[in-house]
Amino acid sequence: MVNITGKVIRILPFKEVKIGDEAKKVVDLLIADESDYKRVSFWDEKAELVLRGEIIAGNVLRIENARVPVESKWGSEKRANAGKYTRIANISANISALSRANSLNLTVLAVARPEHGQVCIAGIDENGDWIRPQGVYESDIFTSNMLNFKNLCISKIYVDEWRGRRPRKEDRFFVYGESVKRALNEEEKREFLERNVDDSVDVVFKGSRSLGLIKPRILHVYEEKVKATKKKAGKSHEQYIRFNFKDSSGRIYRRWSCRCNTFYKTWNELKKKHRWTYGLRMLRYLKKNNVYFAIGLTYSDYGVDRLEYGAYPMIVGVHVIAP
């Protein structure tokens, strides 16, 4: 048993867990002091405290007799369960959560459309390393009415080792974000993109990375409706945009799926204004400007053999810069 005192910095989505024939409610809270955090699972009646709004982000809690799992992929120092015999109290205390913990300044290059409530975020930190914060939900995009992630803006975030299955090199667990610090100006955007652009798709995916940045020549951009059979398979959206393009090596890539949330908004706005010509207008717009794609690989799909990169590639960020 452990005792925990800290501030609630995030509340993850509710879920139901099947234990035997019984379904139990559970919600995970990230609770931090000045130096570190714990992920505490609130079960059953303790989860109800969160459901009823008696515990919210920003509360400082004193948790007594939380149980540490015997075996946990998170490690016993990070994980705890609040169940029947756990005592929980809101207390009055001033805790500057994670004020002594290491943070990253992430220049964001991808904010993808939500899929089943989760959002793919990717960017480059101050050391030049690609980072993909995992476990980011739609509710994490805004915190206390503050925007946490926006393309070509710098966000201050706290991350930890990603302990999920099939980790990719850039995967990190998203602990907390302190909102967008600032947006890059136009000159900074150009410099940043040119400094970090990769030579080709192969350089990215046949190297050691599952994220990269390329400067393509756009050949075609079009919209594809999801077929009814695919909808049944659990697709989150009915509309997908795809690109055909040539990278700087001269190789042509076709039908790459675009997941960039901002690009979908731009596409749909153009579609409303120019119902019959929006596709041609978008292609013309992209060809007359400098375009950069943030590209990424999905998790390895063990159900499909002979995938060239061992997984499915996609466009997770589209950045258009005037020449």
How would you characterize the overall build of this protein?
By secondary structure, the protein is an alpha+beta fold. The chain folds into three domains: 2-90, Beta Barrel (OB fold (Dihydrolipoamide Acetyltransferase, E2P)), CATH 2.40.50; 104-183, OB fold (Dihydrolipoamide Acetyltransferase, E2P), CATH 2.40.50; 189-321. It has seven helices and 20 strands. Strands 1, 2, 3, 4, 5, 6 and 7 form a seven-stranded mixed beta sheet that branches. Helix 6 (261-273) packs across helix 7 (278-288). The model has no long low-confidence stretch (mean pLDDT 91).
Q: Please give the alpha-carbon distance between the first and last residues.
A: 61 Å
Low-confidence spans: none
Overall pLDDT = 91
Strand content: 35-45%
Number of helical regions? 7
Q: How many structural domains are formed by the residues?
A: 3
Q: What's the number of extended β-strand segments? A: 20
Biggest sheet, open or closed, and with what strands and sense? 7 strands, mixed
Rg, Cα atoms, Å: 22 Å
Q: How do the helices and strands follow one another from N- to C-terminus?
A: EEEEHEEEEEEHEEEEHHEEHEEHHEE
Kindly state the percentage of residues in helix: 10-25%
Morphology: elongated
Structural class by sheet pairing and helices: alpha+beta
Compact overview of the structure:
This protein has 323 residues and is of the alpha+beta class.
Secondary structure: elements and pairs:
Elements: E1 2-11, E2 15-19, E3 22-32, E4 37-43, H1 45-51, E5 60-66, E6 79-82, E7 87-90, E8 104-111, E9 121-124, E10 130-134, H2 138-141, E11 142-143, E12 146-147, E13 153-161, E14 171-183, H3 186-196, H4 201-205, E15 211-214, E16 217-225, H5 228-232, E17 239-246, E18 252-258, H6 261-273, H7 278-288, E19 290-297, E20 313-321
Parallel strand pairs: 4-6, 10-14
Antiparallel strand pairs: 1-3, 1-5, 2-3, 3-4, 5-7, 8-9, 8-13, 9-10, 11-12, 13-14, 15-19, 16-17, 17-18, 19-20
